[in-house]
Amino acid sequence: MNKKVGIIYSTTDGQTLKICQRIAEHLKNSGFSTDIIEISAFKDSVSKYPKLIIGASIRYGKHSKKVTAFIQKHKNALDQIDVAFFSVNLVARKSDKNRFNTNPYVIKYFKQLDWTPKIIDVFAGTLDYKSYSFLDRIMIKLIMKMTDGPTSTNTPIEYTDWDRVKAFSIKISQI
């Protein structure tokens, strides 16, 4: 059995990569080897991996166009292997929006995409106003105000549930 897992990601502020690295740690502890590759740098055949994970952050309600293009380009090959997908967004900080079937962005994305991986999950990201550009800071504060989130904080708030990330990793190791 090939115990190689490809982890392909698109990140905006780095949290998706951090989650990918944690997933890789969990998989390594389960006897798997992993390759973590930024989606623009992926040049291999998808079929190189019996298991593939796609991690994608959301900014302003949308996943990166690179992720959508990757999935559309490789859709047939993806259907031949075990694929897991996770989305990272701040809306998932809310308990009623932190599952793939309750997160409005993920639901909308997969309806538009017309493709479904074997495992889908969604994780909350990190809110870090100091790291954002002026325009992003204004926009994200506006979004946070509309969604009853914090609009003033000097320190980053990491909402990622690392126990859920571990559970996701275990699911992947079992498919």
Give a structural overview.
This protein is α/β, with parallel strands linked by helices and 175 residues long. It folds into 2 domains: 137 residues, Rossmann fold (3-Layer(aba) Sandwich); 30 residues. 37% of the residues lie in helices and 23% in strands. The protein is built from 5 helices and 8 strands, in the order βαβββαβαββαβα. α1 packs across α5. The chain is globular, with a radius of gyration of 16 Å. The mean pLDDT is 93.
Order of helices and strands: EHEEEHEHEEHEH
**Approximate helicity band:** 25-40%
Name the CATH superfamily classification of the largest domain: Flavodoxin domain
- Taken together, the total number of domains comes to 2
User: What percent strand?
Assistant: 15-25%
Q: Largest sheet, if any?
A: 6 strands, mixed
Average pLDDT metric: 93
CATH architecture descriptor name of the largest domain: 3-Layer(aba) Sandwich
Structural class label: alpha/beta
| CATH class (first level) name of the largest domain | Alpha Beta
- Rg, rounded, reads 16 Å
For the secondary structure, the number of strands is 8
Instruction: Flag low-confidence runs.
Output: none
Straight-line N-to-C gap: 12 Å
Treating each run of at least 4 consecutive H or I residues as one helix, how many helices? Answer: 5
CATH topology of the largest domain: Rossmann fold
Shape: globular
Key terms:
23% strand, alpha/beta, Rossmann fold, 8 strands, two-stranded antiparallel ribbon, single chain, 6-stranded mixed β-sheet
